[in-house]
């Protein structure tokens, strides 16, 4: 059966998360329902990673095995038609080898987290960022972030229900970017990259760094919390609406290969 890689964008607000669950909406369920319109029987997809309720996808990647040999462009168009009106879209599609796997072939994952400092309600961005009413010291947050880079035991920043075999991970990037906004308010964007993450790791890190930015913690307190290897030493967990799965990296990007289709209508030759 032909295997296809799908790059997926979604608003996580209406969903219980990526993973299919009984009697509640999920991103996986929406995608599988669209696939079922294209071929009889149960259509199953596997993703590069699961996102929690309320978390968004900019570059989630999933795989699907189909009976029909579709051109990537036609498959992308057909899926997007049947996904309506769910806030989910396939933004790229590519034919891949039978042994390629969305999760196990991935070599890195990148997350984006957004904080907007603004007193007035976010109208056009409601549910798309963590809104705070107090200022943050981005420099102090960068100092605290530096304590977490590299290879560590991240037990402190791991959910108690995390199923990963080990709490040891390598954090390759943790940048705090200040972004100019048209409304004149401050926005901080956290760019985080690793081969893989623990459950709630990014949100735990951002929530802890927010305490540093607010002046409740010193940058050095972040290193002490990491060294404690104790979940109780973690700061608050940031809410899900500011988190985006931004990109999944592979040794060879399937969406740059000949024959791949992209959302702008361009087909790779």
From TrEMBL:
What molecular function terms (GO) are annotated for this protein?
RNA binding; tRNA pseudouridine(38-40) synthase activity
- Reaction catalysed by this enzyme: uridine(38/39/40) in tRNA = pseudouridine(38/39/40) in tRNA
State the Gene Ontology BP annotations: tRNA pseudouridine synthesis
Q: Where does substrate bind?
A: 111
Pfam families reported in the protein's UniProt record: PseudoU_synth_1 (PF01416)
Coiled-coil spans are: none
Keyword field: Isomerase, tRNA processing
Q: What is its EC number?
A: 5.4.99.12
Q: What class of enzyme is it?
A: isomerase
Active site at which residues? 52
Residue ranges of the Pseudouridine synthase I TruA alpha/beta domain? 9-104, 145-251
The record ties this protein, via InterPro entries, to: PsdUridine_synth_cat_dom_sf, PsdUridine_synth_TruA, PsdUridine_synth_TruA_a/b_dom, PsdUridine_synth_TruA_C, TruA/RsuA/RluB/E/F_N
Oligomer status and interactors = Homodimer.
Give the function comment from the record.
Formation of pseudouridine at positions 38, 39 and 40 in the anticodon stem and loop of transfer RNAs.
* Family per similarity comment: Belongs to the tRNA pseudouridine synthase TruA family.
Question: NCBIfam families recorded for this chain?
Answer: hisT_truA
Q: What is this protein called?
A: tRNA pseudouridine synthase A
């Amino acid at each position: 059966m032909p295997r296809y890689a799908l790059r997926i964008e979604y608003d996580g607000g209406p969903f219980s998360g990526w993973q299919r669950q009984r009697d509640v909406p999920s991103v996986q369920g929406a995608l599988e329902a669209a696939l079922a319109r294209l071929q009889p029987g149960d259509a199953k997809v596997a993703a590069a990673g699961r996102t929690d309720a309320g978390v968004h996808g900019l570059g989630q990647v999933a795989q699907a095995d189909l009976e029909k040999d579709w051109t990537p462009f036609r498959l992308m168009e057909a899926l997007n038609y049947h996904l309506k009106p769910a806030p989910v879209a396939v933004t790229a599609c590519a034919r891949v080898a039978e042994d390629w796997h969305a999760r196990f072939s991935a070599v890195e994952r990148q997350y984006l987290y957004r904080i907007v400092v603004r007193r007035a309600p976010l109208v056009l961005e409601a549910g798309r960022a963590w809104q705070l009413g107090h200022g943050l010291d981005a420099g102090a947050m960068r100092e605290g972030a530096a304590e977490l880079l590299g290879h560590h035991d991240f037990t402190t920043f791991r959910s108690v229900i995390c199923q990963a075999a080990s709490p040891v991970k390598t954090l390759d990037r943790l940048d705090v970017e200040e972004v100019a906004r048209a409304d004149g308010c401050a926005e901080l964007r956290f760019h985080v990259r690793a081969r893989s993450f623990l459950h709630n790791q990014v949100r735990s890190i951002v929530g802890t760094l927010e305490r540093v930015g607010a002046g409740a913690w010193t940058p050095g307190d972040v290193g002490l919390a990491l060294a404690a290897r104790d979940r109780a030493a973690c700061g608050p967990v940031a809410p899900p609406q500011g988190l985006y799965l931004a990109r999944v990296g592979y040794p060879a990007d399937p969406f740059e290969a000949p024959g791949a289709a992209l959302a702008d209508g361009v087909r790779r030759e």
